[in-house]
Design goal:
Length: 210
């Protein structure tokens, strides 16, 4: 009984160590500096969750970095006119080049909404705009939904994140820890899906040759 308890304790300690090490790598990989303007792509998608994300995406669209923009995850009660008020000088873009997606409720939904939009317009390259700490998970989900489409990340850094180190802001630290947990879950789920798909393909090929 003591051996089982010791093994359980060791396993728990190793799991905790793996979590901490993984989180440190995750936090270190988060972009902390304002990125350079991305190279031009056919389309651009911005995931809602902060006014800075949308403003940055519209600035990039106005600068000619993409031909069309999807704002995914828009609240049902929010109109295009309301969003246009965030960047009034670019209001004409809302009549020609900006689409609003109202179906997505989470990042998985954002990916599904993006896939439908990208396929509808026949795009092969897309700039992804979201918060820096959200970017790793967004790329996993959108990449899983759009294999073969080039994704160009444009991480948005808030003023709050520029004001000091991550560890000094407990609220921001909590947000990043939760995001890391979601990232690990998304990574595990997509890898499991890929493995299941590979196994199914192998089984189908074996059945055809039997």
């Amino acid at each position: 009984m003591r051996l089982i308890a010791n093994l359980a304790g060791t396993a728990l300690a190793l799991a905790g160590l793996a979590f901490c090490v993984g989180f440190l790598f995750f936090a270190a990989a988060i972009e902390r500096n304002e990125p350079l303007p991305p190279r031009k792509a056919q389309g651009m998608v911005v995931l809602t969750g902060g006014a800075e994300r949308i403003a940055d995406a519209i600035d990039l669209l106005a600068a000619g970095r993409a031909d069309r923009l999807l704002i995914t995850g828009v609240n049902q009660a929010t109109t295009g006119a309301a969003i246009a008020r965030l960047t009034p000088r670019f209001r004409p873009l809302f009549t020609c080049c900006i689409d609003l997606g109202y179906e997505a409720l989470d990042t998985v939904g954002n990916a599904a909404e993006t896939r439908q939009w990208v396929r509808m317009h026949g795009m092969r390259s897309v700039i992804v705009v979201t918060s820096n700490y959200h970017m790793p998970r967004a790329l996993i989900e959108i990449g899983n939904a759009l294999p073969g489409v080039e994704l160009v990340p444009y991480p948005v850094i808030s003023d709050r994140q520029r004001s000091g180190p991550l560890w000094a802001d407990t609220t921001l630290l909590r947000i990043v820890v939760v995001e890391y947990l979601k990232y690990v879950a998304a990574l595990a789920r997509t890898r499991l899906f890929e493995q299941s798909a590979d196994d199914a393909s192998v089984a189908l090929a074996a059945a055809r040759h039997s």
